[in-house]
Amino acid sequence: MDYAMFVRLAERGEAPPITLLHGGDVQLLDDALAAATRGLFPDSTLAAWGREVFDGRERSVDDLVRSAMTLPFGSGRRLVAVRRAQALPAKATDALAAYAANPNPATCLLLLADEALRASRERRNDHWLLSALPGAALVELPTRGGRDLAGWLRQRAALEGLSVSDEAARLLVELTGEDTATLLGETRKAALAGGPDNRAVGVKDVGAVVGEHRLDAIFDLTRAVERRDIAGALKTLDRLLATEDAMLLLSVLARDVRTAWTAVAWRRRGRAVEEIARALRRPPAVIEALTGSTSGSETLFAWKLRRCWDVERRLKSSGEPRAEMATLVADLCAER
After folding, report:
1. Above 80 in pLDDT, residue 309?
2. Residue 51: strand pairing partners
3. Best-predicted range by mean pLDDT (95-99, 215-219, 265-269)
4. Which of 93, 170, 176, 184 is 20 to 30 Å apart from 143, CA to CA?
């Protein structure tokens, strides 16, 4: 079962007796819990009687099983949710597996793990929860790139009655990063910047939240890199790193590499500058500069993007942000 199917079932009050949702997107986990709560308790006052939320760091699996086995009072089903389920002790594998084999149909047991549990570069082996539960009970959260995140943000904000322009959504992703809870929070603040009754979020509202000076400084960095102005780019980077997160600046630089690569590839296939500008939502003058005679080869763009990924890995492995970013910026500006 995928995430979208689980949410549809949960909204109808048909969430399975036991489900494990896992992934690093805390907002999606919150939305899943909210959907299950609405579906099981159309009368929100009944949630006080029929819903329990535990923390996996503080309660044992035996506690969770006892709660899940409790019969509902005043509603059709109970909801037992466990945040940070990945912290549950591995010694409880047998107890949880036994419950999963014969769960209480009057309870929805929702295990919410705010990290991916599959084996990866960060995790040597699958988490024990994945083997304790049947495959049908496992839901891996979807992952999104920047363009997908902007679309998700517009759709998610619409559920709260907020209309976010496409340009404002992309700008929020660029300046806020890929944490969906933070993105949604910044969107709400941007709406309030337009007044207490404002429901439409545009670039101006985003600028009011993040600050016009901050926007200008970040774009100064990307413009300097586009011009291959190493001295100017490094000076701007040094100033930005005093207040900005290195991962945010890295995401903006990587985005610009992908945009330039796409623009150059399309131009060489004969697409007009104006058409490319509309598709990429960049001014024609910028597209003209990106695709001029000095634009790089596809091999160069691929190398630049790999450098961004390499720096991302180093930063996540405790690399020194200022040194890593300075080296990257110099590489992105260099003629090759």
Report:
1. yes
2. 79
3. 95-99
4. 93
Residues in the chain, overall count: 336
Q: Quote the CA–CA distance of 177 and 188 in Å, as a whole number.
A: 16
Assign 3-class secondary structure to 34-74: HHHHHHHCCCHHHHHHHEEEEECCCCCHHHHHHHHHCCCCC
Beta carbons within 10 angstroms of residue 195's beta carbon? 9
Quote the pLDDT of residue 216: 74
Nearest CA to 261 out of 221, 294, 304, 313 is that of: 304
Band of pLDDT at residue 147, cut at 50, 70 and 90: low
Write out pLDDT tens, residues 192-244.
888 888 889 888 888 777 666 666 778 888 888 888 889 999 999 998 888 78
DSSP E strand boundaries for 114-225? 138-140, 163-164, 200-201
DSSP state of 41: -
Quick one: 44 exposed, middle or buried, by C-beta within 10 A (0-12, 13-18, 19+)? exposed
DSSP 124: S
pLDDT of residue 20: 97
By C-alpha distance, which of 183, 147, 181 is closest to 166? 147
User: 3-state class of 113 per DSSP?
Assistant: strand
pLDDT at position 168: 87
The owner of tokens 């047991």 is 109
d(CA 166, CA 188): 16
The average pLDDT across 113-128 equals 84
- Domains annotated on the chain, with CATH: 3-140 (3.40.50.300), 147-210 (1.10.8.60), 227-333 (1.20.272.10)
Exposure string over 108-139, b if 16+ CB within 10 A, otherwise e? bbbbbbbbbbeeeeeeeeebbbbebbeeebbb
- What tokens does 172 get? 């929020």
Question: What is the C-alpha to C-alpha distance for residues 222 and 91, in angstroms, rounded to an integer?
Answer: 51
AA letter at 285: A
Is 257 within 8 Å of 264 (Cβ atoms)?
no
